[in-house]
Amino acid sequence: MSRIEAGVPVRAAESVAAAVEPGTVLGVSGFGSVGYPKAVPLALAERGDAADLGLTVVSGGNVGAEIDETLMATGAIARRYPYQGSDEANARVNDGRLAFHDRHVSQVADELLYGGLPAPDLTVVEAVAVGDGWLAPSTSLGATPALVEAADRLVVEVNDAQPRGLEALHDVYRPGAPPGRDPIPLTEAGERIGDTRVAFDPGKLDAVVRVDRPDATYEFRDPTAEDRQVAANLANFLSEEIERNPALAEAVNLQFGVGSVGNAAALAIEDVAFGDREVAYVGEVIQDSVLDAVDAGGLTAASATSLALSAEGQNRLFGDLDHYAERVVLRPSDVSNAPGVVRRFGVVAVNAAVEVDLTGHVNSTHLRGTRMVNGIGGSGDFTRSGLVSVVAVPSTAAGGDASRVVPMATHVDHTEHDAGVVVTEHGVADLRGLSPRERAREMVDVAHPAFRPALDRYLERGLESGGHTPHDLETAFDPLERE
Amino acid sequence: MSRIEAGVPVRAAESVAAAVEPGTVLGVSGFGSVGYPKAVPLALAERGDAADLGLTVVSGGNVGAEIDETLMATGAIARRYPYQGSDEANARVNDGRLAFHDRHVSQVADELLYGGLPAPDLTVVEAVAVGDGWLAPSTSLGATPALVEAADRLVVEVNDAQPRGLEALHDVYRPGAPPGRDPIPLTEAGERIGDTRVAFDPGKLDAVVRVDRPDATYEFRDPTAEDRQVAANLANFLSEEIERNPALAEAVNLQFGVGSVGNAAALAIEDVAFGDREVAYVGEVIQDSVLDAVDAGGLTAASATSLALSAEGQNRLFGDLDHYAERVVLRPSDVSNAPGVVRRFGVVAVNAAVEVDLTGHVNSTHLRGTRMVNGIGGSGDFTRSGLVSVVAVPSTAAGGDASRVVPMATHVDHTEHDAGVVVTEHGVADLRGLSPRERAREMVDVAHPAFRPALDRYLERGLESGGHTPHDLETAFDPLERE
User: Fold this and answer.
1) What Cα–Cα distance (Å) separates residue A329 from each residue in A34, A149, A314?
2) Residue of A nearest to B338 (CA)
3) What are the structural domains, with CATH classification, of chain A?
4) What residue spans of B178-256 are helical by DSSP H?
5) Closest partner residue to A178 among B117, B387, B437, by Cβ?
6) Could you list the active site residues of A?
């Protein structure tokens, strides 16, 4: 199967990069740090005038080091949306050299097309094949269809390091324009409602670039004893919830956040007695743990927008793509994370956090309200619209020196109206239906014992001040004493 | 047309109230302070042991004085969801006598049926008629279908003061249970996809109560000069937005919050040159201003879940219900506010706030982070899922003594990821696509000039501290000096 059937010249990445003008709004494919273009960004980084380019770079989600480390380090990028995940980008975001705003994953496509984010002058997409008016995406789909549609011009990087067969995983459904948009006609996790390819106006295609460079693969740390205890508490909660919640009597759709919480959640589901319920994964990123569960038959289907796998996981998937395509589906991120879809799928969402406060406000992104550690990603989409929204975190950070349960969140990404359940290694705080005062007592109980006295004292001060929500604004952000 | 066709006895409210046991979870119809039961709550308040009843009262939204003043004042209500709007309830919420948690309007029905809120032992619904397995709702629909479905037993108050013809306005569509729920098949503001009646299991119906007592009507204050300037700035923004936003080229779906912001928004739309665009209202409450625009032909349709009208507006509507039913539709609140519907309708949402901070976090509910002033209502549903989300507020409160633009919101109901545009009488801060530092400068510019120096000084301190989001946690909640 030929990978290049488009009637445009194959050009060197350097030639494409040389034509990029200062101030360009550059769209790039990529989500979960995979499926992003590699050659053109590296060639841009090689330009002598890179530091003066003042680019705006818009992706679907996280991309790899070629963009957010190498190109970023040259100073070529002045502005970045809607996610960044590298040390270099983070340092620049935090000292103000990089203008950044992170956005809900589900909204990026609409914001590109209908206001909020700048439309790309040029979008560069990694593909496994390209033809006359179509491209077959690689390891992620993300906001690629919208980045292509919104762009004036298009360059496709055909990456020989990505198997041609990846096309089979994709289900490219495009919601129409509001206000006349039809409902997304998705009713089951594994259903296919679109095409395997992204369509585009052939007149937009400037060039095809050939590259042979794999995505970086993920390395997962082994779960700690603390992670295992969080997982055990989560398993207990899920086992009880599926018994009492009538919406979970026959089928359960799960979502886990990326990273250690995803691992903990995967550990947890091994211990949940789902009985004869159909269990599916309906998230944004497919990690090894999800693939394991598909292989073991624990999941009937897994849908997401990206494949964030270890080298081993990637080998396993790439080795039998047609087989996996029967149960693994990649969707555009405005479909995988669509609030209407998440809500009607009754998703049980499990996500991590930087800190959670006494009344259930969640900070997913900032240290001490100022320094960004990572973007919100899709945590807001699932936490807000999920049927059961769980925040699962170890009770401390920084080797035990800092409590993740705090009096008042120094930055709020998800409000008390959104997350319903908080799980730590010390227990489960089921906040649903509780008043702020009641929530606060539950939250103290899942904090690390060394921080409970300080939290109790804060709560007493808050209750003395009076009001629906117990707070003492003068000491709300004082670092908590460990005892 | 007979109003009572059900085969159960008509009973006195006192008889129904006498049978209510302590600790009962009581569901009541009502939204926007109309369409709620009146006789049974008043009879409950007359019980000698009212103070010991320890009721949990769950409604769709705001209800009238019979419940949240008279019954509340007896101490009969220990717990209340998901909204309260009276001085009596507010005082009890703030001193901890009333356990309360306010919830997104769109989620109340699902939380009643699938976890989060307690299912009612008894639901009392105001209707204009009742039959064998059906009731015709009055001036609001709210969460009534779910409150009826989730309840063990049902009592219907047939209110002769509400016109029988109100039935014609309702469109009772019931989403199925997740995870197999179908998309809500709504594609136009004025479309009807359900029945005019709420169906129920006839075996649930305990009694019918006859009552003749009107809803209290709204009184709107005349817009101040400041309101008019907010409206003028909003009109300018909307005029520009409909020109530049491709999703608004042919049709515009508007939502306004309740109260003075609704009035300001209504003033604004009179001044927007919509050209030949179809303009509809897709909100949660229909106020006089919406009815005016329907009458004037400015709105092709108006859909909501409640009729919050002045006496004059009510007379006008009640005088020609069949005529209005062609363009005015009342939906259950899990349909009117459904995030999937709001998003695909591309709603332009305009809501008020208590305060907005420098990076766009919005507080809709609390004074100084502790004292609740009102619930979040549907502001989160529309602010989060709207295509263009505007917060429109005068720049000051408390007669000019307090700035509504603050360094850091003392309570967050809508995050920086949700609201995109802030309008005050001093201008428009279009925050979309801006980094937190850039947002802060825009926000200072729409603050009242008397507070700008203090905001500027705060921002300088925040920038000195460093980090993506400029804050100085030590002084974040210090009251702003007026100069």
Assistant:
1) 16, 22, 15
2) A340
3) 13-211 (3.40.1080.10), 225-465 (3.40.1080.20)
4) 225-244
5) B387
6) 284
pLDDT in tens, A203-252: 999 999 999 999 998 887 888 899 999 999 999 999 999 999 999 999 99
Nearest residue of A to residue B414 by CA position? A415
Chain center to CA of B136: 22
- Locate tokens 């439309």: which residue? A119
Count other Cβ atoms within 10 Å, centred on residue A97: 14
Q: What is the pLDDT of residue B1?
A: 60
Q: What is the pLDDT of residue A233?
A: 95
pLDDT at B220: 78
Please tell me which residue of chain A has the smallest CA distance to B177: A247
With CA atoms as reference, report the closest residue to B159 among B213, B106, B111.
B213
| Residue whose token pair is 């789909």 | A141
Structure tokens, A86: 């590298």
pLDDT at residue B268, rounded to an integer: 82
**B78 has a chain A CB within 8 A of its CB:** no
Residue B287, amino acid: Q
State the burial class of residue B146 (Cβ atoms within 10 Å of its Cβ: 0-12, 13-18, 19+): buried
Choose the catalytic residue: B66, B284, B425, B442: B284
Contact A341 B343 (CB under 8 A): no
Distance from CA of A315 to the nearest CA of B (A): 32
Residues of chain A with C-beta less than 8 angstroms from the C-beta of B251 = 179-180
Asked whether the predicted pLDDT for residue B304 surpasses 70, the reply is yes
Contacts of B95 in chain A (CB under 8 A): 466
Contact between B351 and B382 under an 8 Å Cβ cutoff? The reply is yes
Which residues, 6 or more positions from A399, have their beta carbon under 8 angstroms from its beta carbon?
none
Cβ within 8 Å, pair A434-B101: yes
Cα(A294)–Cα(A310) distance, rounded to whole angstroms?
Answer: 16
Distance CA(A422)–CA(A359), nearest Å, equals 11
Tokens of B160: 């002769």
Answer for the pair B417, A379: CB distance below 8 angstroms, yes or no.
Answer: no
Query: Touching check for B193 and chain A: CB below 8 Å?
Result: no
| φ/ψ (deg, to 5) at A72 | -60, -40
User: Residues 273..312 of B with a Cβ closer than 8 Å to A: which?
Assistant: none
C-alpha to C-alpha distances, B144 to A369, A400, B105, B117, B268, nearest whole angstrom: 41, 48, 12, 14, 33
Q: Percent helix, strand and coil across chain A, each rounded to 5?
A: 35, 25, 45
User: Is the overall model pTM greater than 0.95, yes or no?
Assistant: yes
Asked if A371 lies within 8 A of B467 by C-beta distance, the reply is yes
CA angle B45, B49, B53 (to 5 degrees): 80
d(CA A31, CA A142): 5
ipTM of the complex: 0.97
Examine the pLDDT at B286 and tell me if it is beyond 80. Answer: yes
User: Tell me, what's the pLDDT at B2?
Assistant: 86
